[in-house]
Specification:
The protein is an alpha+beta fold. It has a single domain (about 45-330), classed as Sandwich (Jelly Rolls). The protein is about 25% helix and about 15% strand. The protein binds 2-oxoglutaric acid and fe (ii) ion.
């Protein structure tokens, strides 16, 4: 992963190394320490990698301009109809706009899956045009500016399997599409690169490993912030740590958060055949065979959790989405 140094560390290093002919120190100079301390690296996209390789290696990828301008316009008009405000969009705030809910049945938003470049990218991920299960489990994320919020990113991150068994392979991935141009701290999603491998290894080693009970230490690094242009997409792995942030910019956060499911649940990854990019992202810890039917495991896990904690807020959120499509519950 390419990194850019925060706190001016890059410039400091350049300053030390360039410009002077002699490396000798004068008596009054203190010797430089080996490296400045406490540098945190802010992850960026490694543009040397093809987007599918980036996805497999880091657990996420950005594909720019995946949505057609005409579709973006249509979807934004739909948002404006729902918001019913006389104010221009950049004056919308949390306090002067309604909550829009998931919009999980909205006919315009669900068409995002029909966008030609989106469908091509899904097929590329699955390595075939026949794998995609044409379920449309998605949510509109509408987050206008919160005038009280500070411009900062949330720490911690999460995965979407709360107090349930976690599938090593699962049956899909997520795509988040931005309908607007964003700035940093604009309510953007953050991703902790590479955590898909770490989390998967834990589950492979211990099927009783759970989020959040066993999460400590997984995300104590800098996350990547998806500062999107209108029409850009973020693809992310079912096990990569991620988080939604508060919106502190004039432009609201307006995105579609979509599950992409595969018809068949994977049972095994062996080294003896070509892997699709999606399979490669699941094979970072080597060949593996599932211990049980993961689809059944998930259905059973959600049933048990519901019986135990019917009022858990994340349980409620997931169940609202689950109402969109019963099949979805078997996956997430
Ligand atoms: O706000 C976001 O982009 C992330 C939301 C999320 O991770 C979730 O709903 O599980
Ligand atoms: Fe999530």
């Amino acid at each position: 992963m390419n990194g850019t140094c925060r706190n001016g560390a890059t410039q400091e290093r350049k300053g030390r190394c360039s410009g002077h002919h002699s490396n000798k120190l004068s008596a009054t100079q203190t010797p430089p320490t080996a490296e400045p301390k406490n540098i945190t690296m802010k992850p960026t996209i490694d543009t040397r990698l093809h987007w599918t390789d980036h996805y497999a290696k880091h657990g996420f990828a950005v594909v720019k301009n995946i949505l057609e301008p005409a579709y973006i316009e249509e979807a934004l008009n739909e948002v404006k109809k729902l918001v019913k405000s006389d104010l221009p969009m950049d004056q919308w705030t949390k306090d002067n706009t309604p909550k829009l809910g998931t919009q999980a049945h909205n006919e315009v938003f669900r068409k995002v899956y029909d966008q030609p470049k989106v469908r091509a990218a899904i097929d590329e991920m699955f390595g075939s045009p026949h794998c995609f299960l044409d379920e449309r489990a998605f949510q509109l994320f509408f987050k206008p500016r919160d005038p009280q919020a500070k411009p900062e990113l949330l720490k911690g991150g999460h995965i979407d399997f709360v107090d349930v068994p976690i599938p090593v392979f699962g049956n899909g991935f997520m795509i988040q599409f931005s309908l607007v141009n964003k700035q940093p701290f604009g309510g953007n999603i953050t991703i902790w690169p590479g955590t898909h491998k770490v989390v998967q290894k834990h589950i492979m080693d211990d099927p009783n490993w759970r989020y959040p009970a066993n999460w400590g230490g997984i995300t104590n690094s800098e996350p990547y912030e998806f500062v999107a242009g209108a029409g850009d997409a973020l693809f992310f792995h079912h096990l990569v740590a991620h988080e939604g942030n508060v919106c502190t910019t004039a432009m609201p956060r307006i995105s579609l958060h979509c599950q992409v499911l595969r018809k068949e649940w994977l049972k095994e990854i062996s080294a003896d055949h070509d892997l699709s990019p999606w399979e490669r992202s699941l094979a970072m810890n080597g060949p593996y065979k599932v211990r049980c039917d993961e689809q059944k495991m998930m259905e059973e896990g959600y049933r048990r959790r519901k019986a135990k904690t019917p009022d858990h807020p994340q349980v409620k959120q997931k169940e609202e989405l689950a109402a969109v499509d019963a099949k979805m519950r078997s996956g997430y």
